[in-house]
Amino acid sequence: MKNVLLLVSIIFIGFGAFAQSQHSCAAAKTASYHRILKKTRAGLSDNSLMNRYDVHWYFLDLNIERNSTVLSGNVTIGAQMTAASDTFCFELNSSLDIDSIVYQNTSIPFTHTNNSHICYAMPSSTLAANANVDMRVYYHGDASVVGGSAIGNGFSTDTSPTWSNSVTWSLSEPYSAREWFPCKQFLKDKADSVQVYVTTDNQNKVGSNGILQGVDVFPNNKVRYRWKSNYVTDYYLISVAVAKYVEYTTWAFPAALAGDSIRIQNYVYDNPACLPNFKPVIDSTAMMVEYFSEKLGLYPFYEEKYGHAMAPFSGGMEHQTMSSMGFFNFGLVAHELMHQWFGDYVTCSTWSDIFINEGFASYGAYMATEQFRGLGSARALMQDVHDDVMDQPGGSIYFTDTFNVNRIFSGRLSYDKGNAVIHTLRFELGDSVFFAGLKNFLSQYAFGNAGIDDFKTSIETTSGKNLTDFFNQWIYGEGYPTYSASYFSNGSSLFLKVDHTVSSTTPTFITPLEIKCNSFLNGDTTILIDISSNSDTYIIPMNKVINGLDFDPNNWLLNKEGSVTIDPSLISLNNSNIQLENEFSIFPNPTKNVVTIESNLDTPYSITIRSILGTPLMIVPSKKNLEQIDLSQYASGIYFIEINSVEGRVIKKITKQ
């Protein structure tokens, strides 16, 4: 049902407008990209050279101030050669000047041409296969490239218009790490560890990945922050944020740590009004860490930290262990935290698979809303998501144009449709299987990469269900169904015909569908039917007169509602099945445990045992003329036996004593 009653009681106050955050991540990640007409990427020969080594670690040792994009210092790429090569290739902003490249304590020749952003370092001897290589690049210059990142610039400086704090910060997704440090921008080549050292004015603090190992004091009012992460990290998740911050730390206590804790380390502007304004939302982070750890598995980077560092941009960015935040509200905090599992712990294999990152991060905001603000608020949120997706008739989650950053970070498709489809998958699988499947998927691809097909295979293994139709229609396909129905109710049965049209190229949506059957005198009943074609008919035993129908009352599916009409002629469905019903005998009825189904048909048929509400409990494919079904696991009461064959469908009511 698309008219959802809103539950207005809100558990938390002071979080800001939640609706504002729904697209803040997506909007921010595409806000400035339109200013770039063409973005130079590594060519085939460059990629071939970079494929000859595997990055093991990055060590950034840089000089950065809070009010300038000019930087200097050195970065070491630690790698192992996977094939012999006489050239070590990497990417770096062509506007930065390379002073030298040092290999084995010796400066070596290099080529770094204008506008190519590709550097070729040429050691005196061939780099042998399996050799460990440390390339240290000394460089300096202005790292600002307008619109270079999905979120504005890869390396930026600005002053917050609200809090008057100057900040220099990095935002490298998807292809802009090279704007500020030498790197290899291959999603599947994660670094085993990362060190980020930043020397700056002693009024500043520096936020980055991992654990702060120490702060060194130097002459001339300089300090050096030394961060290190021993977790596998993708190139675009390495970050710095430099500003006059105050640190605010809280702690999460996930059940899996048995009383131990996870540090939640926050770098907030030093404006005295800033922390009090955002403190209620920041404090909610710990309970989200605990909740997501319960549902998805322990927070992946628990040995180091989680946290936030503020910067003046219009959203959030899921930098590993320390998200960069333009502001704080409940939905944005949940979204970026969920990324630590989906995006950081398991990263999309290609940018075409961004669903793995952004679809699930968006669903994290739904999960947190459902858990902490109530089901009514969550359903209202999902309604907003559905409305945005269905604002246009087509568009698929999957795409192939990975150079179009606006398409990668489409708020309607990558975020909202991804969010909605994950919710539908939860409906199809049920909570226990759904969350077990997410845990298994994350464990299977821990600290690695996965694509949409990897997720499909994993969730099929957990659930035991073939999800080809689901993925073809909801992820690879386009559009959504509009349901219409005609029905007749005589007080003992509901005769129902459900049709659906489609908005785009997916011809049929095969899915379970809830229908609320409204009864003025006897109360409403929600039934579950299986949609298998664009027009399906059903006879459902129901000892009440039905006065109206509502589709999808709990907002599980992307769909619109068409017409609902009363059609007395549908009672003929009963007559059309009389001959087929005579082909089956079901006994004993009532039964204590075992019911026998005897068939005179020569063709195979399937049996579905349903609850009195229509929920499928057991499905038995059968080619036997005599089938025995054990109902001992179910409580006493009324059940329906649905028999489907090529000749049609028969539904029988049975009582278990």
Helical content stands at 10-25%
CATH topology of the largest domain: Immunoglobulin-like
Oligomeric composition of the shown chains: single chain
**What is the strand tally?**
36
Uncertain residue segments: 1-20, 32-39
CATH architecture label name of the largest domain: Sandwich
* Proportion of residues in β-strands: 25-35%
Under the CATH scheme, which class of the largest domain?
Answer: Mainly Beta
CATH superfamily of the largest domain: tricorn interacting facor f3 domain
Strand order of the largest sheet: 5-4-8-2-1-11-14-13
Major β-sheet profile: 8 strands, mixed
How many structural domains can be distinguished in the coordinates?
4
| Distance separating the two termini | 35 Å
Q: What's the average pLDDT? A: 91
- Could you tell me the radius of gyration in angstroms? 29 Å
The helix count comes to 13
Q: Tell the overall outline.
A: elongated
Derived from helix and strand composition plus strand pairing, the structural class reads alpha+beta
Descriptive overview:
The chain has 657 residues and is of the alpha+beta class. It folds into four domains: 26-345, tricorn interacting facor f3 domain (Immunoglobulin-like); 348-474, Neutral Protease, domain 2 (Orthogonal Bundle); 481-575, Sandwich (Immunoglobulin-like), CATH 2.60.40.1910; 577-656, Immunoglobulin-like. The chain is built from 13 helices and 36 strands.
